[in-house]
Amino acid sequence: MYAPIKIRLAILGSTGSIGRQTLQIVRSLPDRFTVVALAAGQNLDLLAKQVEEFQPQLVYYQTESTTKKLECPAQFMPMEGMASYPNVDTVVVATSGIAGLFATIAAVKSGKNVAIANKEPLVMAGEIITNEAEMSDASILPIDSEHSAIWQCMIGEPRRAKYIILTASGGPFRNYTAKQLQKITPQQALQHPSWQMGKKVTIDSATLMNKGLEVIEAHWLFGIPIEDIRVVIHPQSIIHSMLEFYDGSVKAQMAYPDMRLPIQYALLQPDRIPNPDLPRIDWEKLKELTFEPPDYENFPCLKLAIDAGKAGGTCPSVLCAADEVAVDLFLKGKIAFTDIASLVAETLEQHEPLMEPSIEDILAVDDWARDYTLELARKKR
Amino acid sequence: MYAPIKIRLAILGSTGSIGRQTLQIVRSLPDRFTVVALAAGQNLDLLAKQVEEFQPQLVYYQTESTTKKLECPAQFMPMEGMASYPNVDTVVVATSGIAGLFATIAAVKSGKNVAIANKEPLVMAGEIITNEAEMSDASILPIDSEHSAIWQCMIGEPRRAKYIILTASGGPFRNYTAKQLQKITPQQALQHPSWQMGKKVTIDSATLMNKGLEVIEAHWLFGIPIEDIRVVIHPQSIIHSMLEFYDGSVKAQMAYPDMRLPIQYALLQPDRIPNPDLPRIDWEKLKELTFEPPDYENFPCLKLAIDAGKAGGTCPSVLCAADEVAVDLFLKGKIAFTDIASLVAETLEQHEPLMEPSIEDILAVDDWARDYTLELARKKR
Question: Residue A173 and residue A198: Cα distance in Å, rounded?
C-alpha cells in the first residue's frame, strides 16, 4: 500500500492562530505529518492539550512568564534548538513580532524548509535570511495568503514576473474619514471582516501597516524591486495576489479566505492534496470581485512601510519596532488609532539608517526604536 | 551578441483574423521568427501583400475558387505538405471549420509544435489527434484565449487540476429574452462586444456554441472529464479561464481581450517576451469583475455541445457540421438566430453515434450531417 513519508514538523507558536490552524492541517492529513516539536508563549493550558494530542519529542514555553510547569515526557528545548534539530524537516515559524527572528535564522542555517508566517524576521533581516538560505539551500516557504498566492502563480514560469499586484482587503475602516479614524476603539479594530487572525496582525491590517510589511516581505521572497510591487484594494479577499508578467499576462490565485490553504500549500508544495476540510469557491454564489486604489492619505502606515522598504538597511527594523510598541499602546487604550502612524513616522524620522546591518545592529536599532517610541508616546500624553 | 534561434513558422489561414494577428506578432518580434509558409483561402490580394512582406518559401491558396494566380517566387504547396515540411518548427492552424483537419493531423504526425486556433479538428477528432501527438511527441499549443489561460495556470503544477472554470463573455445577447433572440439579424450578431473575430466564431460566440466547443477542446487538451469543466459567464472578458485544484486553490489568467497575447504565448512558451504592442491591465481603471451562471435555456447550443462532448464518438462531428451549415444559413438571412440551435439539435437526434471513429468515419458523418441540416432547413421554409 502507498504510504507517503511523513514530514517532521517543528511548530513555533503552536498556540497562536497560525499554529492552531497548522495543527488542524495535521489533523486533516494525519498520514502526512509527524509533530516533532511544539513551542508556545504563555498559553500553557492549550499547549498541554496539544502535547497530549500530538506527542511531540520537544516542547518549549516561556518559563519566565509563568510559575507553572508543563508535566510531560517531551524534552524542554529553546526554539533555536528545535529549529535546527536533526529530526525536523520543516520548521513552521508562527510566532509573532521579533520573537521568531533567531529561530528563523537557525532554521535557515540548518537548511530546513522554513514555512514562515511571522513577518518581522524577513522584514527586519530579509537580506541576512535570504543570503543564509542561498548558502545552506534552505527553502523559505511563505504562509501568508498573499505570498502563497504569488508563489503559486510563479511556479513553472521560467523568468521572474515584472510586477507583483498585492491585494489588500482594505481593512474594516476602508471608507472611514480622517475624523472617524481618530475615534476607533481597540474593540472595533479587532473585528476583521474576512480573516481570523492574532491581535497584532488584525490592528496592522486595519492601519494597512500589514500590507506595507508584506510589500517588503514580497521583495525579499521573490527578488522583485519594491518599485514594481503594486498594492490594490480588493475588499472581497478572494484574489490573494497576482503576478503580472513581461508579456502583460496576469496570473491570480483565488480562494475563500482560510489560512489553512496557504499553510497546507507551504507544507506540501508543489503537491496539492485533496483536503475535504478546505472550502471551495461556490461559482454560483460568487457575484463580483472589485478593485480600488489604496487611500495613502488616510492610511499613512502603508506608505511609511513602502518608503522604509525602499530606504532599506535598518529602516524596516525601526518601522517594525515602533509599530509593535504603538499597536500595543493602542490596544491598551493609551493612544488613538491614528497615533500609530504618527509615532512610527516620528521614530523613523529620528533614525539614522545603517546599511547592510548585522543581526546585532538590527537588535540594537530595535531596542532604540522601542524606547524612543514609548518615550514619544509618554511625552504626548 | 545574443541572437535567439528563429522559430520557423507555417501559418495556415494567414489572411484570417488569427493569421493576421500572428503576423503582427512576427512584426513585433522580428528576431524571433521566420515565416516559411503562408496558406490562405480566397483573399488573394492580402496574401500577395503578406508574401511580399514576409517572403515565405511556400504558399497556398484555393485555386478552385479563383481564376487569378499569385505571381511570386514561393513554391505552391498544399497545407498538409506545409504542415509536415522539414524546415518548419511550428505550424499555426488558423483555418476555420473543418478546413484545418488534415493539416493538423499531418503536423501532429510530423512531431511539430502545432499552435491551434481552429476548434473543429480537436472537437471532431480529438482522440485521434491527441493519440498521434503522444506517439510523435508533437506539442499541441492552444491559441484560444481560454485554453491558453488554462495552460498558463497549469504549468509547474505536478498534477492535473480538479476542475476547469471556463469563462464566457456571454455574447452580445446575454440578457435577451427568448422573443428578442428570435429577431436578431446577422448584422447585430456580428458586433461582438470584446473580441475581434471571424464571422463564424462571432456567431458561435453569440449562440454560446463556441463555449460548448471549447469545453470539448479543453477536455482533449488537458485530459479533464467534461463533467469537471464548468462554464461561468464573465462579461468583462478579463479572466480568460481558471483552474481549480484538488486543494481548492484556484488560479486565473487575466489580460485585456487581445488575441496577440495567447498567440505569442503559444509560439514562445514557456518564455514570456516583453512586447510593447501588447496591452497591460490598468489597475487604476479595473473596477470590477463579475460572474453569473450561463442561461442554458435561452442558449441551448451550449448544452447541445456539452452533451455531444459527453456522448463522444461521432457526436461532436455532427454538432460541428450541423452548426457550420446552420450559421451559414443564418448569415445568409435564410433562418432565424434561434433556428441554429434547433437545426443542430434535430440533426443530432437523427444521428446514430459511432464510437472511436476513424477519420473516414468522421468525414462521412460530416457529409451526412451537412446534407441533413440543409435538407431540414429547406423543409422548414
Answer: 18
